[in-house]
Task: structure prediction
Amino acid sequence: MTLQVTVLGSTGSIGVNTLDVIARHPDRYRVFALSANSRVDELLAQCLRFAPRYAVMADPAQARLLAARLKDAGSATAVVDTPDALEQIAAHPEVDAVMAAIVGAAGLRPSLAAARAGKRLMLANKEALVVGGQLFMDAVEQGGATLLPIDSEHSAIFQCLPEDPATWPERVDHIVLTASGGPFRTRDPATLAAVTPQQACNHPNFAMGRKISIDSATMMNKALEVIEARWLFGLPPDKIRVVIHPQQIIHSMVQFNDASMLAQLGTPDMRVPIACGLAWPERIASGAPALDFAALGALTFEEADAHRFPGLHLSWQALRAPEGTTTVLNAANEIAVAGFLDGAIRFDQIHRVNDSLLGQVQPNGVDSIEALLALDGEVRVRAHALIQELRA
Result:
């Protein structure tokens, strides 16, 4: 059977790699719909190559431009420009699988729509769980969706855990998420105030979007992954640990109660977890090169200490606070990163914004998507105000 796939965020790195894997298996997958924020040229090229039924652009002006250019090219792809367009292509009755790769809180609503519609949901959008938390997991259960993590670390944990989640409490001691340490792993923290956006985007192992690259440099990316792991695997915060592993060959590990440990290894290539998500429980060719152990060299590990990586440790603080605090952290970080990329604040002030907002905003009664998004909006306003103060 050919699976009909919607790719949310198709022009980002995860989306591009997803389409690369799909193109290797035309007998198994067909692209049903694609979405992007504002990259008309890239989405146009994808539509002409994969001929999806629908395309969506978040920017209305760009959506009109895309529709005109598709028409000029003789394409049958229809551009959906309604306010709920992303939810439509995520929950469409003919869609079998959804790759949720929109960066930020903007990906929450379509991911929820896919979950409620019972899709095979390949989750690369951390914020769906960081912001949505219990609400999102309830939607997965109620909709009967199959939730498959696409972050390489969470995919690794998923592959190492026993198939029956009911056995995890009696078998699993803790999980270990690995982290590269980013481009400033060995840099003196006292010098980070001088870091430029170009330097921060220079990840040692992956070519990623600017926002994710900054998060990797501050280790906020790993902080969000800790929060995501808590919901994906139903583990308390003290059973989730992080270790620095610069080579990123071991993607993550599970330690069992008998002190044995399982790890998933592979080349640092996002097509591996993407292929795993598309085909699970089967395995298909991803296009990634296999490990060459003879050429691999040493694998090293370091402590993820709070002095060097203070942003990482905000995750455990947020998880132990009232529900909704992780939403506060995520919203503050999105605005802080944007402020740094725009030159409004220094690199080291990203953590200051995040830490300050955690102390300022105390969530209360966030039991609906509307309440979560209202909280998200409040934090963004406060974060903008704080950035203006720092700028002055």
Notes: The chain has 18 helices and twelve strands. The longest strand covers residues 29-36.
